[in-house]
Amino acid sequence: MTQQVSPSAKNAATSPTVFDPRIVVFACNWCSYAGADTAGVSRIQHQPHFRMIRVMCSGRIQPAFVFRAFEKGADGVLVSGCHFGDCHYIFGNERAVEQFAKTMNVVKLLGIEEGRLRLEWISAAEGGRFAEVINEFTDQVRALGPSPFAAEDAIAEIEAPEGGGCQHSDADSDSDAGGGGH
Ligand code: FES
Questions:
Q1: SS3 state of residue 118
Q2: pLDDT given for residue 82 in this prediction
Q3: Using a 6 Å CB cutoff, which residues line ligand 1?
Q4: Is pLDDT above 90 for 2?
Q5: Does domain 19-170 have CATH number 3.40.50?
Q6: Cα diameter, the chain
Q7: Which residue puts its alpha carbon closest to atom 2 of ligand 1?
Q8: How many angstroms does the Cα of residue 31 sit away from the middle of ligand 1?
Q9: Cβ distance 62 to 96 under 8 Å?
Q10: How far from chain centre, in Å, is Cα 165?
Q11: Which residues 6+ apart lie within 8 Å of 182 measured at CB?
Q12: Mean pLDDT throughout 37-43?
């Protein structure tokens, strides 16, 4: 299989002076997280400067999750879930839209650029789309530069693992279906 390498991914790999943003990706278990998995098994290359946090549904992603990520040093936060009509919990992604709007309002009030926060729908089959979104968002955040909230000691806590690549973790230890809120 021919590997797909985006121009932005090539540039990031060949330029030692380029700013590598630290991005937190909240991904729902049933679509977006699986989409990332599809990108991986399909060997679709993408920029590696993100850490993925799995939640059971995008409706679980409360504003506090996003603020915590910025507080802990993220330069950008991507919220992702199933396309409308595909949510495992029926209306979870509709709730995610409401939560995201509230989050964006506060983000702007805090003086954080809108471009540091993004909402995307990615299905389990869309490995290519996952890679595109990651590459686009990484470039977008890179252009904005480091977050003014990214304190050095906080950044260390979300540092990418040795050897590059993303690191996955679960947001909830209980991981109950849908979490709260819908
Ligand atoms: S399960 Fe994916 S958005 Fe609800």
A1: strand
A2: 98
A3: 28, 30-31, 57-59, 81-82, 87-89, 92-93
A4: no
A5: yes
A6: 47
A7: 82
A8: 7
A9: no
A10: 13
A11: 57, 59, 89, 91, 92, 95
A12: 96
